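Postdoc handover notes: sequence design on the structure in folder B. Input tokens:
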């Protein structure tokens, strides 16, 4: 059985969000059972610099083929010295279409004006590559790869297909007129308009959902939410309900080779389950001092917890409620440290930055992305905030566990599948859950966390329990392999 994954992101070649981490880890784990390759675009200097950051060497490519499509020359290259006999990575190289300063967005933060055309050319080239190969299963990730499934079905090719929804908020919706000036076969245009028709527009995700043999998403609860509730299905809930017989939710995992406090080079002090409390204390003290929240160790108060945030600061992630919640906590004479790292909605950023102005000895807000600081925050924090309105899977709670940090999360999507509220189930609890993203509910959760933190004996043992939890890709990859076997039995 040979599988090809099609994606726009993959660590260590291109990263915007969690999709890159999934594609960077899942194929490697699956290669224990079967042959799994990945193809994605080459983003020029963005790819080169990220690869060098990971491996401290230049990216080396071997040309597999070159061609021309819709007046765009391109090449497909295999990455040298990467993967194994069962796992290879191919990069689609088109200087005109993909070697830019952003992956999805331009300098202004808007999608590239030619994004429909970019993804069309990439996916048509992928299908040409597939036609010259012997892959049994094509596994496409998110709407940007929908054209691969559409074109395979249009050509009546026999490859089995699986389409994974990582975030249904992004569907690839365009006006029908966008096809007018694109020089593709008229019958294929009609096919796209027919299969992707959506309220007089084109919805590429809808087409992929209807045409793929199997649809997967990144947690069991999210699979339930997106077909039963309009606020989660975002217009596609009825389509998904009609296709529920082929929809499955498989929880993502994390790569413990990449996320391990014992080997993490970013930490002030490495630690494992045997010295987690000493390790977290050292990381917390050093981070507070580096961020100017602590000027000397004599001023350190053992009873003040540190709440960490590493996230996109937007409405989906629930951070519009953080200002009110944390302000209520501090104004109740309950001291707490808050360290925030992320970028996002300008209004939400400014609101959170006000906390640092109002409580300069307790709050540090860092409007940027820094992998190094993110890792320090995971290790230093006592609690980690994930107040999402919806969360397909979420990786932050899994990383938190590995670093002995207690998640505070909303009861949604993959968070509901992977966090058990300790106040509802003391024996099996792994964190603190709130019903929804609401400032009063988050305030109550912060108070509960503060109270829990005073019981140091409990906290010290609880951290060890969290570090023993297994959210590696081992379990998830076996479920995907079962899905592939099921897919192979489908007669087309």
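Designed sequence:
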């Amino acid at each position: 059985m040979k599988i090809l994954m099609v994606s726009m992101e993959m660590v260590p070649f291109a990263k915007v969000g969690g999709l890159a981490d999934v594609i960077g880890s899942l194929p490697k784990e699956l290669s224990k059972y079967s042959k799994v390759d990945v193809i994605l675009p080459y983003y020029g200097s963005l790819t080169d610099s990220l690869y060098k950051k990971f491996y401290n060497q230049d990216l080396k490519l071997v040309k597999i083929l070159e061609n021309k499509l819709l007046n765009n020359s391109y090449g497909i290259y295999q990455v040298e010295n990467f993967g194994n006999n069962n796992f290879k990575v191919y990069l689609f190289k088109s200087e005109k279409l993909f070697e830019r300063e952003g992956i999805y967005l331009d300098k202004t933060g808007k999608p590239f004006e030619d994004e429909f055309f970019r993804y069309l050319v990439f996916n048509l080239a992928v299908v040409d590559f597939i036609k010259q190969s012997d892959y049994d299963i094509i596994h496409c990730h998110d709407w940007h790869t929908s054209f691969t499934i559409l074109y395979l079905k249009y050509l009546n090719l026999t490859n089995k297909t699986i389409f994974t929804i990582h975030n249904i908020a992004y569907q690839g919706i365009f006006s029908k007129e966008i096809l007018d000036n694109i020089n593709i076969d008229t019958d294929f245009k009609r096919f796209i308009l027919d299969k992707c028709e959506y309220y007089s527009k084109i919805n590429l995700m809808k087409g992929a959902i209807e045409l793929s043999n199997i649809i997967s998403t990144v947690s069991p609860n999210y699979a339930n939410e997106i077909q039963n509730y309009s606020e989660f299905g975002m217009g596609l809930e009825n389509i998904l309900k009609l296709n529920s017989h082929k929809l499955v939710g498989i929880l993502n995992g994390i790569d413990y080779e990449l996320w391990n406090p014992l080997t993490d080079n970013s930490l002030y002090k490495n630690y494992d389950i045997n010295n987690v409390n000493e390790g977290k204390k050292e990381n917390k003290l050093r981070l507070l001092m580096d961020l100017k929240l602590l000027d000397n160790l004599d001023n350190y108060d053992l009873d003040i917890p540190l709440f960490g945030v590493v996230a996109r600061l937007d409405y989906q992630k629930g951070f519009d409620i953080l200002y009110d919640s944390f302000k209520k906590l501090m104004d109740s004479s309950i001291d707490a440290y808050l360290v925030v790292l992320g970028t996002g909605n300008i209004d939400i950023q400014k609101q959170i930055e006000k906390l640092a102005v109002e409580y300069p000895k307790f709050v540090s807000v860092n409007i940027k992305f820094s992998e190094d600081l993110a890792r320090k925050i995971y290790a230093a924090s006592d609690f980690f905030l994930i107040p999402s309105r919806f969360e397909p899977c979420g990786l932050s709670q899994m990383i938190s566990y590995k670093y002995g940090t207690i998640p505070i999360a909303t009861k949604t999507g993959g968070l509901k599948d992977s966090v058990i509220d300790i106040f509802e189930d003391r024996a099996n609890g792994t964190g603190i859950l709130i019903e929804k993203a609401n400032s009063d509910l988050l305030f109550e959760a912060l108070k509960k966390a503060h109270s829990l933190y005073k019981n140091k004996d409990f906290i010290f043992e609880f951290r060890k329990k969290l570090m023993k939890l297994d959210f590696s890709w081992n379990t998830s990859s076996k479920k995907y392999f079962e899905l592939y076997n099921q897919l192979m039995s489908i007669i087309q």
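Context for whoever picks this up: The chain has two domains: 2-253+474-488, 276-470. Don't rerun without checking with the PI first.
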